[in-house]
Design a protein that fits this description.
single chain; Arc Repressor Mutant, subunit A; five-stranded antiparallel beta sheet; 11 strands; 9 helices; 2 domains; alpha+beta; Jelly Rolls
Length: 279
Amino acid sequence: MNPVWQETTIDGARTQRWSLDVDQCPELAVNRIAWLGLDTVAVPYRRVRLAPSGSFVLATLGGEGRVWLEGRWQRVGAGAVCLAPPRVLNAFHAVPGSAWTFAWVRYEEPVGKGPLVGADSPLRLKTGAEELGRVLEGLRAEWAGERDAALTSHWVGLVHGQVRRLARPWRGDSRMGGLWEKVAGALAADWKLTTLAEACAVSAEHLRRLCRSELGRTPMEHVAYMRVHRAQELLAETNDKLDAIAPQVGYHSAVVFSRAFVRCTGMTPTEYRERGRRK
C-alpha cells in the first residue's frame, strides 16, 4: 500500500548543506538548472516533492539513504545514481546509523519542452556518482573563491554535461534503443517479456540483464514506465477521460491504469491533471 504523501522538508541538527540556485547564479539558467547542491545528512532528514517541474538527479557519494523508486523504498549506497523525470514524486530519507552524502541537480522544464530525463532514461545507475560529485565540488570551490563568470559558466556546463551523460539511454547496445522506439510507437500493444526479446533478437534473460544494468528496472517495468510517461502527456495536453486514455497506453481498464500511474508518480491521474492546471 502506498503512503499518503505530503510535501516535506526536514533537515535536523546534523545536516550540512551547500546549494546554489538560479537566482544566485544566473549561469544555471542557460541549461535550465534551477538548483543544485552537495548535502551530508542524517536522521531525521527527509524530503518529499510531490510533482517537481523538472528532472532530478541524485548521486550518492558516501554512506547510504533510501529513495522512493517504482512504487517502493529502495536503499542507495555509495556510487548509486537515481534519476527522475519531471512531475513525478521525489522522496528521499536518511536512514538510522548512516551519514548520507550526495550531490544533486534539479531542473526547471516546462511541459512540452523535452525533459532531460525522459521515458527512455535510466532510473538507477551503479556508476557516475563520483564524476558528478567532482564537478559539483569544482563549482563550489569557484563559488567560494573568485566567482569568475567564465569559470563559473565552465563548471556549470560540466555539471550539465555530466547529467546529460547519466540520462542518456543504452550506452552499449543500439538494438535496445531500437526496441524502445518500437514500444513507444505501439504502447497499446500487448507487450510481454517474450515479445520484447523477439523484437530485438535477444533471449528473454539477456534482455532482463541488460535492462537491469542500463535502466535499473526490468523490461516490463520499463514498459509500464513508458506508458505512464505518455499518459502524463495526454493528461496535460488533452481533456480525454481516463477511460479513453487507458487503452491508448496499453491498459484495458481505467482502474488498472490508475494503479500503475499511482505506483510510478505517487498520485492518481486525476490529481496529476488538477495539479498541472493549478500551475
